[in-house]
Backbone:
């Protein structure tokens, strides 16, 4: 009888240990990583509409549009510069400002409710000139944009493509690029674009 009870107890204990060591649901882990990825990688832009939540501090919660200077104005801490920051980095910046003078171990969550429209413009000798949407969470190169605009037309002068960019201070600069070298791999430069860049592909002089 004692031997049977001991065996039963051992089997029950083994089952408990096996259950506790079972691997977590890989699907759940994948979804968590996926949801964190956007917050980690996406760099906030002017005109993004965001929600800033401070846990258990409802008076501090705000839904606000990021200014053209890439900042937000929040209760108590005032203007917060978010230039070049991802959503997660912005959370940490805001958390540190509240913790410095006002709250003990605050928990801050920043959610992008509405992404600002981001485009580049491809004009001239391409098959579908016009607006090309700029991907939210990844880059766009000059050749990518031309490809999305239907690629070069038959008469395109690929050696004298211009890229015009307006800087944050309002000044503009224009570069002339040999896109033929880019497409052949003869140049290592990829020419990453920024929102509102204007690409113009001239026609060849026959």
Residues:
């Amino acid at each position: 009888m004692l031997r049977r009870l001991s065996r039963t107890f051992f089997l029950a204990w083994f089952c408990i240990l096996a259950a506790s060591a079972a691997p977590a649901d890989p699907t759940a882990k994948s979804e968590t990583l996926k949801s964190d990825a956007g917050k980690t990688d996406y760099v906030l832009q002017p005109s993004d509409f965001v929600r800033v939540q401070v846990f258990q501090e409802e008076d501090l919660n705000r839904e606000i549009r990021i200014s053209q200077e890439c900042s937000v104005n929040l209760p108590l801490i005032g203007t917060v510069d978010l230039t070049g920051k991802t959503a997660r980095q912005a959370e940490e910046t805001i958390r540190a400002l509240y913790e410095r003078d006002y709250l003990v171990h605050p928990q801050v969550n920043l959610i992008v409710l509405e992404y600002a429209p981001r485009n580049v413009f491809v004009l001239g000798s391409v098959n579908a000139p016009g607006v090309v949407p700029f991907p939210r969470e990844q880059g766009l190169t000059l050749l990518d944009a031309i490809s999305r605009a239907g690629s070069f037309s038959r008469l395109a002068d690929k050696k004298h493509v211009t890229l015009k960019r307006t800087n944050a201070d309002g000044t503009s600069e224009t570069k002339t690029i040999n896109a033929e070298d880019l497409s052949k791999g003869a140049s290592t430069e990829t020419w990453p674009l920024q929102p509102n860049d204007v690409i113009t592909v001239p026609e060849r002089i026959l």
Q: What stands out?
A: Residues 1-38 have pLDDT under 50 and may be disordered. The radius of gyration is 27 Å. The beta strands are 49-54, 62-65, 71-74, 78-81, 108-114, 119-124, 130-133, 161-166, 172-177, 198-201. Residues 38 and 137 are 7 Å apart (CA to CA).
